[in-house]
Design a protein that fits this description.
Structural class: alpha/beta
Number of domains: 2
Radius of gyration: 22 Å
Number of strands: 18
Distance between the termini: 23 Å
Strand content: 15-25%
CATH topology of the largest domain: Aspartate Aminotransferase, domain 2
CATH superfamily of the largest domain: Type I PLP-dependent aspartate aminotransferase-like (Major domain)
Helix content: 25-40%
CATH class of the largest domain: Alpha Beta
CATH architecture of the largest domain: 3-Layer(aba) Sandwich
Largest sheet: 7 strands, mixed
Number of helices: 14
Length: about 450
């Protein structure tokens, strides 16, 4: 029995050191077995003290991270293609963010609940100034799932104040919006929910549109299918949209999204864009829904908002966000002052260093290199998708043509053994989403490392 089998987890990685071919490029370095033998005690404690649900990423003990690279204590260095699950837009440990945090710690405000503070108000003002026209309030939270939960509650109450029957919500099959109760139910059918005995029967999933069919026609088919289940347009309060479907970095067809906006306007339905992965320059636009040239009614943002500490927000018009009464839903650490300090510094970095434009330019290079990889391995790479520096390789079994989750998982580990830090999506994809500060040469070198890994496997 293999170690993976004995763990009881089909997606668990081995913790036994494996010999690695030495790697030395200007951007990545591997000099030991992996995981490095000296890190074994930490990994053993991780298995001992964490539930197994947390033990599914490559077993590398991160010691420090700078800009676009990750280091362990044994001297190994990786190009970071994970951005810590698409969070570190301005890179790891940017000096401006570190300085802002150090200065704020000296000021002494380390907790505040829902009381006002200058730094929290300053961040809200900055977010509203950056938000699309018509969005004039920022509802601060701690993590993305909380922002989704808040938007769900707002949308339901907003709809029912218009019509008591207007409480149905739509989302897309394959979307992922979070692990909390409402967010997980909004997540698509791939987010298994056997534990949920009484699911929300007014949350409905419609097919994610394909890019080889007419978008408006696909939307009409989904609306007709809902009507057959006695769910009509006037009963729908909102549609939740993962702006690029995260597991596969899949954009929506533009004609579909524009048809969706027209339909929503015709029936007084909110379009709520989940920009938690895609916001703040990640896709080469400040917000990814700009690629579709449509209006958002609410934006849920997080991750790249601070590129470091936990922070999230719902941005929208007062007429929608003021639906809830004071203290209806809140949380102790929402908009924590330290996180606000990090976010303000991070937003300055994004604009001062031109990271939005850089993500667009470097992302084009990344996709060009990934397409070359697809040409080398056409039987195994079904598709390359993405925008800016949020991209994915879609893997398939050449014998069956079906998505190959096992190959994706093994490719992650083989790439890590070659100095490219990836994270496991638990799907048939390998995501390539480095910090926006990465130089193009490092992107090319990292994708070359993925190619070396894939050649070894196939």
């Amino acid at each position: 029995m293999t170690e993976r089998e004995s763990s009881g987890l089909p997606n668990a990685f081995t913790f036994s050191p494996q010999a690695c071919t030495p790697v030395e490029t200007p951007f990545r370095r591997i000099t030991t077995a992996l995981p490095a033998p000296e890190t074994a005690p930490v990994l053993a404690d991780a298995v001992r003290f964490f539930p197994q649900v947390n033990c599914y990423q490559p077993p590398i003990v991160w010691d420090r991270a700078e800009k676009y690279q990750v280091f362990d204590a044994a001297g190994n260095c990786w190009i970071d293609f994970s951005s810590t699950a698409v969070a570190c837009n301005s890179g790891h440990g940017h000096p401006a963010i570190r300085a802002a945090l150090a200065a704020h710690v000296e000021e002494g405000l380390l907790a505040q609940f829902s009381f006002a503070s200058e730094i929290r108000v300053r961040l809200a003002r900055r977010l509203v100034e950056l938000a699309p026209p018509g969005m004039d309030k920022a509802y601060l939270w701690t993590v993305g799932s909380e922002a989704i939960e808040a938007a769900l509650r707002v949308a339901r109450e907003w709809g029912q104040k218009r019509d008591p029957r207007k409480y149905h919500l739509l989302a897309f099959s394959g979307d992922f919006h979070g692990w909390t109760l409402g967010a997980h139910q909004l997540s698509g059918t791939s987010a298994a929910k056997p534990w949920l005995q009484h699911p929300d029967t007014a949350i409905h999933h419609i097919p994610f549109p394909t890019d080889n069919r007419d978008g408006p026609t696909q939307l009409d088919e989904s609306i007709a299918a809902l009507a057959e289940r006695d769910v009509h347009s006037g009963q729908i309060a909102a549609v939740f949209i993962e702006t690029l479907q995260g597991w596969g970095a899949l954009p929506f067809p533009v004609d579909y999204m524009q048809a969706l906006r027209r339909w929503a306007d015709a029936h007084d339905i909110l379009l709520i864009f989940d920009e938690i992965q895609t916001g703040f320059g990640r896709t080469g636009k400040l917000f990814a829904h700009e690629h579709y040239d449509v209006r958002a009614d609410l934006l849920c943002v997080g991750k790249g908002i601070s590129s470091s500490l936990p922070l999230a927000a719902v941005l929208g018009p007062a007429a929608i966000l003021d639906t809830l009464n004071p203290a209806d839903i809140t949380t102790t650490h929402a908009g924590h002052p330290l996180s606000c300090a990090a976010a303000l510094a991070n937003l300055d970095v994004i604009f001062d260093e031109g990271l939005i434009e850089k993500a667009d330019r470097t992302g084009q290079i990344a996709r060009e290199e990934l397409r070359k990889l697809q040409q080398r391995f056409p039987k195994h790479i079904a598709r390359v998708s993405g925008l800016g520096l949020l991209n994915a390789i879609h893997l398939r079994d050449p014998a069956t043509g079906k998505p190959d989750k096992a190959l994706a998982r093994d490719l992650v580990w083989e790439a890590v053994k070659r100095g490219v830090m990836l994270f496991h999506t638990n799907r048939e994809t390998v995501k390539v989403c480095p910090p926006l500060v990465i130089p193009p040469e490092a992107v090319v070198d990292g994708i070359a490392g993925i190619g070396e890994a894939l050649e070894t496997l196939v």
